[in-house]
Specification:
Blueprint: E1 5-7, E2 12-14, H1 18-25, E3 28-29, H2 32-42, H3 47-50, E4 54-58, H4 60-68, E5 73-79, H5 90-103, E6 107-111, H6 113-119, H7 125-141, E7 149-153, H8 154-171, H9 174-181, H10 189-209, E8 214-220, H11 224-234, E9 243-247, H12 274-282, H13 292-298, H14 306-314, H15 318-329, H16 335-359, H17 364-367, H18 369-373
Parallel strand pairs: 5-6, 5-8, 6-7, 8-9
Antiparallel strand pairs: 1-2, 3-4, 4-9
Helix pairs in contact: 2-4, 6-7, 7-16, 8-10, 10-11, 12-16, 14-16
The structure holds tryptophanyl-5'AMP.
Amino acid sequence: MSEEFYVTPWEVRGKVDYRKLLEKFGAKELDVDVVNRLGSMAGEVHYLIRRGFFYAHRDFDKILEVAGRGLPWALYTGRGPSGPVHIGHLVPWILAKWFVDRFGVELFFQMTDDEKFLDDEEATLKETNGYAYENSLDLIALGFPQDKLHIIIDTEDIGVLYKIALKVAKKLTWSAVRATFGFSDSTNTGLIFFPSLQIAVAFLPTELRGETVHVLIPAAIDQDPYFRLARDIAETLGYPKPATLYSRFISSLRGESKMSASVAESAIYTTDDERSIRVKIMNAFTGGQPTAELQRKFGGNPDICPVYEYHKLFDPNDKNIGEIYENCRGGHILCGECKALLFDKIKSFLKIHVEAREKARDKIHMYRLSAKLR
Ligand code: TYM
């Protein structure tokens, strides 16, 4: 890995160079042809793809081919429930919802309360399992139809995964897993087995249907190591290679590459109250000049500004986004004004989200895969 940045599923350090990361991981950049093909099949291209949040893939073109031929395919993504959900986590879930709506496919969603227990010295199973339920509320709040979303909570639903995970584990050597995840002699053995469980869900739809079901995994690029390994062994186990669609990270409020759930000041959580969101936004790093006078004279730099990035995340209207960009560049808007606009957008989004989240509280069981299989 390059000296200036470091990316694993558990840690991101430094300023991420997304091109270099692709070279390192060996995934492909999304090109115009694939995006146009998606547009012609779906009737539109989701703004998270259009605006370059999603920028890379493995075999996404094959999924489009499979969809075009009417063959079965499904979505898979997940969450390591270590704490509340932040706005970055919503990125792959929002896109997954769009695929569900546009293509009528099902989403298998894994809550890895086991992983988060193993990964954090301090965490208890009670806590991570509690967050699996809390985080499920955020997912359901996005409006998935009950028959399209299947939630798997690892510590409770291991039965559907265990046989597949064993087959996976038998194919994965210690040296491959160690090299892929950077494990060392002091890594606990739970964490060493865990990749088999995250990979297993990619093969679950095929097992459940008893026929080949292709799988598309929308996630941020940090999850690639799992699916690289999954692709290496899929065919020897009789499963199709999972395809992936990768996003960049939503930046932290402080301007670092990744908003991180474990750094409270870096993140806006869906459970934050309005006051703390306002304070967090008002204190955020920006691409603006140090004084209002300099900003008016020279303009700011939206390309490095997390506030502008969050505008792009919360405002699907391209015209508004274009105006903010030009006004910032031309010095016609000050950072304080831009932050106030952003606060209003996030406040409106969260008002609806929080209500939907509360309504989901007594409905989680309806979305559990285990309940549907009984
Ligand atoms: P976790 O909980 O670290 O992250 C959940 C999802 O959010 C993405 N993500 C982000 N996306 C954009 N900007 C950010 N700042 C940001 N931070 C996190 C992650 O890439 C992920 O898609 N091991 C996984 C859980 C998991 C999973 C999966 C994820 C199980 N199966 C299949 C993706 C696909 C984890 O701990 O994710």
